[in-house]
Fold this sequence. Notes:
Layout: E1 13-17, H1 20-23, H2 35-41, H3 58-71, E2 76-80, H4 83-86, H5 96-111, E3 115-121, H6 127-130, H7 140-155, E4 161-165, H8 168-176, H9 188-211, E5 218-228, H10 233-256, H11 261-267, H12 279-282, E6 288-301, E7 309-312, H13 328-342, E8 347-351, H14 368-386, E9 391-397, E10 416-418, E11 425-427, H15 429-438
Parallel strand pairs: 1-2, 1-9, 2-3, 3-4, 5-6, 6-8, 8-9
Antiparallel strand pairs: 6-7, 10-11
Helix pairs in contact: 3-5, 7-9, 8-9, 13-14
Amino acid sequence: MKHRRSDFPEGFLFGTATSSYQIEGHAQGGAGRTMWDDFADTPGNVVRAENGARACDHYTRYEEDFDLVAGAGLDAYRFSLSWARVLPEGRGAVNQEGLDYYDRLTDALLARGIKPCATLYHWEMPSALQDLGGWRNRDIAGWFAEYTEIVMKRVGDRMFSVAPINEPWCVAWLSHYMGLHAPGQRDIRAAARAMHHVLLAHGRAIETMRGLGMQNLGAVFNFEWPLPADDSPEAQVAVDRYDGIYNHWFLSGVFRKHYPQIVLDGLERHLPANWQDDFDVIGAPVDWCGINYYTCKRLTLDDSPWPSVAEVEGPLPKTLMDWEIYPEGLYNIISRTARDYTGDLPLYVTENGMASADVLEDGAVLDPARTAYLDGHLDQVRRAQAEGVPLKGYFIWSLMDNFEWALGYEKRFGLVHVDFDTLERTPKASYHALAEALKG
Ligand code: FCB
């Protein structure tokens, strides 16, 4: 890598990120069924109908995996806790084994000097709650607060940081409007309710953790940088709508206590009654803001119903996800977020990374494109820092190859290669390059 740790301010955190359903092996340890198990069991939803039942078997191999985190010289580890592992029915009876597991996992991180950065929800809604409407049902916010209290009473004293919900846009829009993630709905009313309830649940969880005396609480959003497909006024309208739905809705809700009009134009009539009254909860103060960034999108209008936005293929080199590599977008997002929403609040890049078709040959995995991707995005991190943006850390998605949701196991995002037959872990060349860069 061309960057070294010493190029960054003192105390800047380097980390890596994972999520529970993608790595743990959800069939183990008494966890309840989740909507991702249901989604994967539905023909056509997930490549080869793969699921997270075994995944990387991190449930039993976490010690070995944390040795890899420490071996790379990383300071922090962003992981998630599975609601259904702690509460198999989503509420009511606690699975003691699940709570014990997250307790051991936390101590295993601390024993290696790694800062535990937790997320309370990275998408595996307990099926029993999905049966009651999941994100569509306003009660989800209260159920989420109860889960938050149970799990944080146990491990909250040892967390470096906590964010309630990973990527509200994916939870709401991708899953209830586009139908591409569980629960696979294509329904604007469900989407509008999820767009609101996901933020309400975020706020309730923040309030709950404040009540427990916890600090360093944040929010993690995924953002894409929208570009017009051409210089027509229509393309600019498409950009503004996309930007509104994808980016501004969530930032505006949490940091300004209102929703952008350009999105309300289409969603207001589908929102739940009295949604305006929830902003004191939604806007509960946070201590930091996390940004997940991977790519840009090129947009134009089409003649479909609102928002009538269509994506156009772009010219830049792409990752295995077919995502254009556009590091400037990270700078744009970071600097605009700080300028327009968060001011002096610490920002973190909580996910950034790429999938490639990595192969294990003679005991090694050569992935120079990943190292270049990370270098390119770290350039933009430094550019934003040089302009005074309070960016405090950078987390790579992901520690190891894992279950990439609807795309199954073939999209390899890891710094560490996983053989999904033997579950053997092999650090890739990018892992070694990172370890070298972080030395000293
Ligand atoms: C993010 C998700 C993460 C992974 C990466 C590639 O949106 O948070 O689980 O799927 O994308």
